[in-house]
Specification:
about 190 residues; 2 helices; about 40% strand; elongated
């Protein structure tokens, strides 16, 4: 038996002695992926999100090309724990003349925390490990037209880290033109 996170692969180590030495992996209750394929004895099995709901996935190795012999089988159970789930929040649009700060509210499940980072040059008002935070864009972020913020899971245990991103788009500021100046003489009531 093995225990894996939903976002990590389980390494299989099938051995078939006697006969042709070939076999095939199958699962009656899992929907993950065998890589590179089901006929590789030391394949890896990558669980799907549905395998997390099942919890214990049964993998069966069956001998193939048996000649006149019966099929031989053995099995292994893969215990699938949920992997981290990260949500950086929805994309946001703000006016390029009013970008003093942007509120962000990320969430992380099945990990102990998260850390914010930016692909721009702005900064976070609070520590980057505070999920409900405020991003202060730089003028460069605004001039570039958008900036991407990334929230990454931390404290993942044996799981791989997971990232999610959100884009802040800076929309053009309004331009107002009231028309050309019209000279009016003092005392005239019309232009």
């Amino acid at each position: 038996d093995q225990t894996v996170c939903a976002n990590n692969a389980a390494q299989l180590n099938g051995i078939i002695t006697g006969g042709s030495g070939t076999g095939v992996w199958s699962t009656p209750n899992g929907v993950g992926i065998f890589s590179p394929n089901t006929t590789t004895l030391n394949a890896s099995y990558t669980p799907s999100i549905n395998d997390t709901l099942v919890g214990d996935v049964l993998l069966i190795l069956s001998s193939t090309n048996n000649g006149g012999c019966s099929v031989a089988m053995d099995s292994v159970i893969i215990h699938v724990n949920p992997g981290p789930v990260v949500n950086a929040g929805a994309a946001q649009s703000i006016c390029s003349n009013n970008y003093s700060s942007v509120s962000v509210n990320g969430s992380v499940q099945f990990a102990s925390g998260g850390v914010w980072s930016t692909l721009g040059t702005g900064s976070f008002q609070l520590a980057d490990t505070i999920l409900t935070n405020t991003y202060v864009p730089s003028s460069t972020d605004s001039l570039n037209g958008s900036v991407i913020l990334i929230l990454s899971s931390t404290g993942n245990g044996g799981c791989s880290a997971v990232n999610d991103s959100l884009r802040i788009t800076f929309t053009p500021s309004p331009i107002v033109f009231a028309g050309t100046d019209i000279p009016v003489c003092f005392g005239d009531t019309s232009a």
